[in-house]
Design a protein that fits this description.
The chain is of the alpha/beta class. The chain has 2 domains: 146 residues, P-loop containing nucleotide triphosphate hydrolases (Rossmann fold); 68 residues, no CATH class. Helices cover 40% and strands 26% of the residues. It has 10 helices and 10 strands. The chain has a 6-stranded mixed β-sheet, sandwiched between helices. Strands 2-1-4-5 form a 4-stranded antiparallel β-sheet, with helices on one face. The radius of gyration is 17 Å and the shape is globular. The structure holds adenosine-5'-diphosphate and magnesium ion. The site of magnesium ion has 5 residues, from α1.
Length: 235
């Protein structure tokens, strides 16, 4: 579905991504794990065209999107939930969800999708008329994911959904990420520092260190790998 081939991305002179190869197949949950500053968010920015790579190729559903503008990439169905759950704080939950469906015209399906996200996150249904800024961190993350779902993503990019949240909320959000993948067949690219949970949630994983992919394998193999256990799992 998505293929990154030999991607090199820079911020001025800073060489943030070095010869990155990643492949995501339809229906998979793929995780990219790595320490702070490894280049995980930059990988997502390169896919979305926000920070286009200087060299290499990104192919989405057989089309080269390497230099495609972000709005076109979004309209093809690549939807990102950015780090730090940027919702619209002054808009209500319901209005935030409507913003997610902004580009769509299929009114009936939009209605069904709203019902679906309220089913996934009943707390958002209870708070539909509350402004986003007054929600807890966990609820804001739920809203950010729900807003992305309202865009009817083909490929959902999640940037550290666990960041700053209590373990019990993180568990809840990750089990819903799995559920979305299973029920909606949405392909998911999950970027995380929480390697343990990410590897337990995804099918395959990539490890990034200072801009390079250093490991790529099934999550089962990565969880059993001594180097990964020492460096990322603390066991
Ligand atoms: N806007 C930017 N300008 C300059 N350097 C940046 C910028 N964003 C990120 N970087 C640098 O690129 C590298 C990768 O960062 P990032 O992709 O944010 O890592 P991660 O998401 O894995 O924490 C880091 O060295 C970071 O300092
Ligand atoms: Mg990041």
């Amino acid at each position: 579905m998505l293929k990154l081939e030999n991607i090199n991305t820079f911020y001025g002179n800073i060489h943030a991504l070095k010869n990155v190869d990643i492949e995501i197949r339809q229906g998979e949950i793929i995780t990219l794990i790595g320490a702070n500053g490894a280049g995980k968010s930059t990988t997502l920015m390169s896919i979305c065209g926000v920070v286009p790579p200087r060299s290499g190729k990104i192919v989405f559903e057989d089309e080269d999107i390497t230099q495609t503008p972000t709005d076109v990439i979004v309209s093809r169905g690549i939807i990102q939930v950015p780090e730090g759950r940027r919702i619209f704080p002054a808009l209500t939950v319901r209005e935030n969800l409507d913003m997610g469906a902004f580009l769509r015209k299929d009114k009936e399906k939009i209605k069904m999708d709203i019902e679906y996200v309220f089913e996934l996150f009943p707390i958002l249904a209870d708070r539909r008329n509350q402004v986003g800024g007054t929600l807890s961190g966990g609820e804001q993350q739920m809203l950010a994911i729900s807003r992305a779902l309202m865009a009817s993503p083909r490929l959902l990019l999640l940037d550290e959904p666990s960041l700053g949240l209590a373990p019990i909320i993180v568990q809840q959000i990750f089990s819903i990420i799995k559920k979305i993948n299973e029920e909606q067949k949405t392909t998911i690219f999950l970027v995380e520092q929480n390697a343990n949970l990410a590897l337990k949630t995804a099918h395959r994983g990539y490890v990034m260190e200072t801009g390079r992919i250093t490991q790529a394998d099934t999550t089962k193999a990565l969880l059993a790998n001594d180097k990964i256990r020492d460096a990322y799992l603390g066991v």
